[in-house]
Design brief:
The structure is a single chain. By secondary structure, the protein is of the alpha/beta class. The chain has ten helices and twelve strands. It has a six-stranded mixed beta sheet with strand order 6-9-10-3-11-12, with helices on both faces. Strands 2-1-4-5 form a four-stranded antiparallel beta sheet, with helices on one face. Helix 7 links the parallel strand 9 and strand 10. The longest helix is centred in the middle third of the chain and has 15 residues.
């Protein structure tokens, strides 16, 4: 589904990613861990086309298409979704109008008719239940006045509505208490199918107790320095990142 080959990326002339190679197949969950400043969020931003980041070398193929040639909007329509570490508020834009516009844009791109108001509201009710999102929140402006946990649940609700092929969860667990973490993770798990995949970016093992990864990577100073199964996350939880630095001779 996703092939990243020798990816280099910079921001303001400073190289952040220094040759990333990564391959994700349908039905897989890949976890990316690493200390602050290692390039995890940069990678997610590059994948969805954040213009602040410049790709200087390498390629990204998504279902055979050159992702770097697509606008952020078309990357979304092709099936990419990013759950933000810090979801933004959009005052004056209701969740209902926001999600209906987004969903119908995706349907239009695929040659499908717009969803009717009745069917849309029915769909919203179904998807809200997945993440236990209160109807009052769904009726308000996007994320306005939401708590941190409510914003994260709202992100997974949006993911449920759009049904992406590849979901990128950028530190979705940050700032969540145990109950909110469980609800968000259960929502992600309910949305898994044999046709989709996920990249989970996190600092902590606790999220991976709920969302079971197939592969775990350690990203350090812009490079993937370790690749293994779920046991790698447990080792990081036990030892921290100092042992990675020691292995790198620092």
């Amino acid at each position: 589904m996703l092939e990243i080959k020798n990816l280099h990326a910079s921001v303001n002339g400073k190289e952040i990613l220094k040759g990333i190679n990564l391959s994700v197949r349908a039905e897989e969950v890949h976890a990316i861990m690493g200390p602050n400043g290692s390039g995890k969020s940069t990678l997610s931003s590059v994948l969805v086309g954040n213009p602040a980041f410049e790709v200087t070398e390498g390629e990204i193929l998504f279902e055979g298409k050159n992702l770097l040639e697509l606008s952020p909007e078309d990357r979304s329509r092709e099936g990419l979704f990013l759950s933000f570490q810090y979801p933004v508020e959009i005052p004056g834009v209701s969740m209902v109008n926001f999600m209906r516009a987004a969903l119908n844009e995706h349907r239009k791109y695929k040659g499908l008719p717009a969803v009717s108001a009745t069917d849309f509201l029915k769909l919203m009710r179904e998807k809200r239940a997945i993440v236990e999102l209160d109807n009052k929140l769904a009726s308000r402006s996007v994320n306005e006045g939401f708590s941190g946990g409510e914003k994260k649940r709202n992100e997974i609700f949006q993911m449920a509505m759009l049904e992406p092929k590849l979901a990128i969860l950028d530190e979705t667990d940050s700032g969540l208490d145990i109950d909110a973490l469980r609800i968000v993770a259960n929502g992600v798990n309910q949305l898994r199918t044999p046709e989709n995949a996920a990249i989970v970016i996190t600092h902590y093992q606790r999220l991976l107790d709920y969302i079971k990864p197939n592969v775990v990577y350690v990203l350090y100073k812009g490079r993937i320095v370790k690749t293994a199964g779920p046991e790698l996350a447990l080792e990081l939880e036990e030892k921290g990142y100092d042992w990675i630095r020691e292995e790198m001779g620092e």
